[in-house]
Amino acid sequence: MSAKIIDKLGLITLSGGKVAMVRSHNKTLFYIPGGKREQNETDQQALCREIDEELTLALLPETLRFYGEFTGLADGKQDGTQVRIRCYFADYQGAPQPAAELAWLGTQDFSRCSSTAVTILTQLKNDGLIE
């Protein structure tokens, strides 16, 4: 039996060598803002909806740029469930009004991040996009 995979979309927002990350009220680790795709949603539709729900930001759909797909163990799952997150850069209107806690994190913050977020931070550093 294969492990379950959670299909997610994420927004990479950079500022001052850091990445915007969020933490839900009932979680201990930070993760890339975004969320799960609903049935028949495209990446663009799911990401725009999730970022509006999570950060109250209106993404500009025409500015979405694919960054990469990352897979790792799902936070808080003990059964081997994996999360696959397709990450994008995008421009937006407004300022974030997070439904969860928002922090700007870098590679020195690995201990505060989900395993998949650590993988994404490592790739961003390797690509020279963060410190």
From TrEMBL:
Keywords: Hydrolase. The keyword Hydrolase applies. Residues 1-126 form the Nudix hydrolase domain. Its cofactor is Mg(2+). The keyword Hydrolase applies. GO terms for molecular function: hydrolase activity. PROSITE patterns: NUDIX, NUDIX_BOX. This is Hydrolase, NUDIX family. The lineage of its organism: Bacteria, Pseudomonadati, Pseudomonadota, Gammaproteobacteria, Enterobacterales.
